[in-house]
Structures are given as structure tokens and as C-alpha cells.
Amino acid sequence: MSAELFCLTYGAMVTEMLKDYEDPKDVTIQLDKMGFNMGTRLADDFLAKNANVPRCVDTRQIADVLCRTAIPCYLGVSATASSWTSGDREFTITLESNPLTELVQVPPHLVSAGLSYSQLIAGAIRGALEAVHFKVYASATESGANTEIRIRFDQVLKDSLPAGEDD
Amino acid sequence: MSAELFCLTYGAMVTEMLKDYEDPKDVTIQLDKMGFNMGTRLADDFLAKNANVPRCVDTRQIADVLCRTAIPCYLGVSATASSWTSGDREFTITLESNPLTELVQVPPHLVSAGLSYSQLIAGAIRGALEAVHFKVYASATESGANTEIRIRFDQVLKDSLPAGEDD
């Protein structure tokens, strides 16, 4: 699958959404929701393909699986985790490059107005982690040439664990 | 770039458009326009990367470049041209598989109502060919597991040739 085709399709989609929603902030919310739904499906796909990935027990391990396996697998780029705060409950994932923004230039006035162009990726991470019972908040920001995704761990979703796995 | 991510992003986009437009036919028209705009950009990208592709002088050559080079390059699948009619002015491109529909099931009632789910690809072909001065009509249909794109050649756009290349 060509990265150019994906980048242009995504750009066309966001352009379309900016026409439909008056407020760029609403486009960000919508991209986040779309990403979330995709993330829950990608989690299934990921688990089916990576049976050897161990069950994560802390956020350092989650960050490691995201940066070393999941993001390279689906976005085709490498990523690093840094800026750990709040007792490892928050961290930043920096994408080495961002296939969504490769061929596009996001107008600064839309960014100022609240458009987070790459929020689909943050939403997908949130959805994928929620599928494996980690509730997090995730937001994407473009920082120069880099895209950063700030992840804040909220809670382990014990209620939705299958009966017998609860403790 | 993962085909799964592209497929799910595209599915989310079409779902979003179906909510915004009342008539699935209008979604098809919109996908065609989006594809057209992408196609004009992909044509530039393609020409920059494939300096050795000869200038096409007939539809058989156009079909050959599309099926052997452009479609494998951007969609990552092979394609064949067949069903030539009207003195080679019309032909059908059959995609070996379609990354847009890999993980989705398009509800039959939307297809009956005029949704051509893969019209983005047909629009992109139309846009790419128009960028190199061939005006065509292109429409996509799912035929069982295959996606077929019917291309009808209209005219060579002589007016938009650079001065000096006109004959």
C-alpha cells in the first residue's frame, strides 16, 4: 500500500470534514472517534498477528509495545517514548515521521482554531488500548516536523475483563 | 504503510460521508471528485518516479501502464485489462484484490441505492489520466470478490497541451 495514496486519501477526508463541521475542534473530536473505532479493530488484528507479545503490566511495557511493534507495523515508521511524568502515568510518543502529513501542509490558522490533524492516530492508540482494558487519554500535536502523541493513563478497566480473570 | 490501516480509514470516511449526504449516489459522486483530485497529484508523483515510462499514444498502452506499473505501485495489487470494445475506446480493469474492501462488507442495499464504494480508485484513474491530457470516464463496480473499473476514452485534451506540443 502506497504511503502517498494513504496520505492523499486522509487529506481529502479531513478537507471534507472541515467543510461539514463549522468548528475545526469538532473535526478533531470526530477524527478521535474514528480513530478509536479503528483502534479497537486494529487491536484484534494486532493480537492475532503477534501471539508472542507478552501481556503488559505497566505503562513502560505498553509504550514499548506501541513504539517497537504496533506503530512500526501499522504506520510503517519508528517511534520513541519519552517525557515520563506523574509516576510513569504520562508519556509522549514521538513519531520519527508521519505518513499522514508527508504530502500535506496543514494551514496554521486551522491548527490555532483547534484542528489536530493527526488525532486519528491518537484515537486509534486510545481505542487499541481500551480493547485490551487500558483506559487512556491521547492527544496528537504537530511539533515542527515531528508528530507527538501525549498519552495519559487513566485506569485498568476491570469490569470488562472476562469472568474468571477478575481479581 | 499497512493495508489494514488504510482500509479502516477509508471505511470510516465513507461511513462519515453516508451520514452527511442523504443519497448514496451523492457519496459516489463525492468519492469520484476526491479521487480525481488525488489522481492529478499522483500523476505528478508517478511521472517523477517513473521517468522511463514511455509516452502513451493509444488506450492499449494506457491500460498497460495502469495495470503493470501505476496500480501495483499505488494500490499494491496487480490488475488486468480486458473486455475491449468500441474500437479499443472502452476497456475494463480488473483488480486482483482490492485493499479498500479487504476488511469491510458494503451493505447490498447501499450498493442498490447507488453507492460505488471503490469509486475513489476510478476517480483517481480519471484524474491521473486527465493530468496527462487523456479525458476518460471511469466507474467502479464490485463484481463478487473482484473490483472492476470500466474506462471509456473520451478525447485527448489538446487545448491544455503546452504551447509547441500542439499539432
From TrEMBL, chains A, B:
May play a role in vesicular transport from endoplasmic reticulum to Golgi. Required for the systemic spread of the RNAi response. CDD domains: TRAPPC3_bet3. It is found in: Endoplasmic reticulum; Golgi apparatus, cis-Golgi network. GO terms for cellular component: endoplasmic reticulum; Golgi apparatus; TRAPP complex. Transmembrane segments: none annotated. Keywords: Endoplasmic reticulum, ER-Golgi transport, Golgi apparatus, Lipoprotein, Palmitate, Transport. Homodimer. Part of the multisubunit TRAPP (transport protein particle) complex. InterPro entries: Bet3 (IPR016721), NO_sig/Golgi_transp_ligand-bd (IPR024096), TRAPP_component (IPR007194). GO terms for biological process: Golgi vesicle transport. This is Trafficking protein particle complex subunit. It comes from Caenorhabditis tropicalis. It comes from the Eukaryota. Belongs to the TRAPP small subunits family. BET3 subfamily.
